[in-house]
Design goal:
mainly beta; Jelly Rolls; seven-stranded antiparallel β-sheet; disordered C terminus
Length: about 300
């Protein structure tokens, strides 16, 4: 069991935009197909990113601020949950301030290895590779790496190849579009065997069956959850209470691994939780040939003169 509390003073600038600051909440095991990084991000100014894709999966929840666009009509508003499958291109990404003060826009992002088994590069590996690539005479220009000869490459691709010494593989997307769920439109349903506890099931994705749900405990209610296979990441969105006899409150993040009992008790107000379940990645007997080596396959490139 890991319990991490929100720390207003613990922010690190870890994004190529230069205006996103992260508070690293929880992380997995480097070089494992199950590796992940769970962060709380705050935005200091407007920012954008060109259309791109990753070889890992993402789940996003904007907590304060909305109208972040991901291209092709995809908008993720405050309180909505977005699932971005591995290998799926999205963007151009635009995130205006909409009159908010610097640091006010806030959101949760989970990045994790997908069903392909390609895994997720740790932030420590990423930071070290950046330093080594800069020391080699190149430099980073936003999300791109510029080599000493002036040639450019998508920065994360360069970093991946530097860390692992091999081409980055993009799993061909299992879904044709990001999935956006609006929790307000889901019903609270009782959790069987747990008086005063309700949940909203938002969905499960891919053959890995990663799932997302909201859980609410009424004042004084208790809930114990054990999953023999899946790791669970829980974040407090509202209220306060106890987890494993430790006080928890707004933005406390809890990691319960497979087989560990997640024991929660609500305080004097309803305890509202955001829960992501991460079953283990099961590798196929042989690697799928459904992958690309290039950043953008021909069918995903925008025609000349057409907007992204």
């Amino acid at each position: 069991m890991k319990i991490v509390h929100f720390d207003e003073d613990n922010w690190i600038k870890d994004h190529p935009s230069g205006v996103l600051y992260f508070q690293h909440l929880l992380k997995g095991e480097p070089d494992s197909p199950d590796n992940f990084m769970y962060v709380l991000a705050k935005q200091q100014d407007e920012w954008s990113m060109p259309r791109h894709r990753h070889n890992f999966e993402q789940i996003r929840l904007p907590l304060v601020g909305d109208n972040t666009t991901y291209g092709r009509g995809v908008v993720l508003k405050e309180g909505q949950v977005g699932y971005f499958p591995e290998g799926l291109s999205y963007g151009p990404q635009e995130s205006p301030m909409n009159g908010m003060a610097p640091g006010e826009p806030l959101g949760l992002t989970l990045q994790f290895g997908g069903s392909s088994g390609y895994g997720f590069m740790s932030i420590e590996q990423r930071r070290q590779a950046r330093e080594e690539l800069i020391a080699a005479g190149g430099h980073f220009d936003g999300p791109f790496y510029v080599r000493p000869d002036g040639s450019r490459q998508w920065g994360l691709t360069t970093i991946w190849e530097h860390v692992f010494g091999d081409h980055l593989k993009y799993s061909r997307p299992r879904y044709s579009h990001p999935v956006v769920a609006d929790p307000k439109r889901f019903n609270w349903l009782p959790v069987e065997g747990a008086k005063g506890v309700d949940h909203k099931w938002l969905g499960a994705f891919s053959e890995r069956a990663v799932w997302v749900e909201m859980v609410r405990l009424q004042p004084g209610a208790s809930w114990s959850s054990v999953d023999p296979k899946a790791r669970r990441l829980v974040t407090v969105l509202a209220g306060e209470g106890e987890c494993d006899c430790e006080q928890i409150g707004y933005m406390t993040a809890v990691q319960a691994d497979a087989g560990e009992s997640l024991d929660l008790v609500a305080g004097s107000k309803p305890l509202e939780l955001f829960l992501i379940g991460l079953p283990p990645v099961v590798l196929p007997a042989s690697e799928s040939d459904e992958y690309d080596l290039e950043e953008f396959p021909a069918e995903d490139r925008e025609p000349a003169g057409q907007p992204a």
